[in-house]
Amino acid sequence: MFGGTEKAEKSQPAPNPADEKQPDKGAFSLGNLSDGVSKLFSGEGAKMIQGATQKFDFEKKERERAEQGLAALKKMAGKDGILTPEDRQNIIGQMDAALTAEKNKTVNSIAGAKIQEAKNNRGPLRKALFPNAPLVSKIGNKKRLEALNDPKHMQTARNQALGQLNQGFKEMGMETTGGVNFQQGLQSARSMPSISLEDTNAFKDTMTMVRDKAKAMGLPQGKFKEGLPVAFLEDVLAGKRAFTLHKYQSGSSE
User: Fold this and answer.
1) What is the pLDDT of residue 221?
2) DSSP class of residue 222?
3) 100: exposed, middle or buried (C-beta count within 10 Å: 0-12, 13-18, 19+)?
4) Angle between the 197-216 and 230-238 helix axes, to the nearest 10 degrees?
5) Which of 189, 165, 177 is nearest to 90 (CA)?
6) Which of 16, 59, 134, 209 has its C-alpha lying 20 to 30 A from 230's C-alpha?
């Protein structure tokens, strides 16, 4: 009995070192841990960690502009304090006076150029007899007034403003597939503060400034898929550390 067992044991081949299981490259080891720590605290990883503990720093003029941008955001975000694509129609309504002024400026410029062209195209006799071209001016001004009162031109101005709004929302990570009711926006805007083109420019400048500073700090570009809260910009200007601002954002792109 014992002999048979001994024979079986002796007949087994000797272990080959080459057949021994090699370490799994994906397995946890001190070497892997050391590697990971090394990468974390070097290059972009270290920059991101350092940036996350920092505050956004603004020079005097930058802060003044950012405060203007914050004031504009409060107007656009409405009572709930969160700017979302649903606010677009109200924003267009709040911008009605500004859009009307810009539209009128464009119409007047085009009409003035056409009136001057008509004056220049008159024959020499008419130029000599009527140097001020009263008839041309009368007809031209009539057409100018018609253009100023043409609702199609205002519709064009609103559509252009909406296109710019849509682009801004997309850059912040929000979808703008829903429709917009301009008339409803005009109605709602009666109880809301007006928005000027300077307001929208200040807001755009501020968000660009914050984005560029975040990039310089090594932070990933966050998105506001659920909307941009007024509180986010307030915390940025209040000097809150960068890592505390992530709660306002969703997702990131490298």
Assistant:
1) 76
2) E
3) middle
4) 60
5) 189
6) 59
